[in-house]
Amino acid sequence: MASMLKTLKMFGGVNPDAWLGPWFSDTILGILTPFAIYAAFDLEGPVTWGLLLAFNCIGAFDYAHGLLAQYMHPQIIMVGGAPAKPPAIYGSIGLGLLFQLINIVVLLTPNTVKYFTYYEVKNDIQCANISTVTVP
Prior knowledge:
By secondary structure, the protein is an all-alpha fold. The chain is 70% helix and 0% strand. The longest helix has 27 residues, at 46-72.
């Protein structure tokens, strides 16, 4: 989305300036996505769970902001210079919002919370068992 910034009116383009926020946050979230994927598959613990939840909440807010921007200030051209088609924009942003909301619901289910928070409890139990072992 960073390439679309030059199409804003403030930079001499034809798209409304209201798209600066959604495109900027899309760019930042896109840069952070590989780190979120890594965290989801390789890290455990409540901090990881919280970061994944925050990432998806910010992503959902970004999609909602994009829907509002499209409603109030429709895009003129899309990526690649093609004319903007409102159904395509609403559909793609709406689908992204739906997936973000599904991720949030899944992250808030008891099994997912237990998966991410059990890590610390499991390590505490192992440490407790090791410290109580007596050597004959």
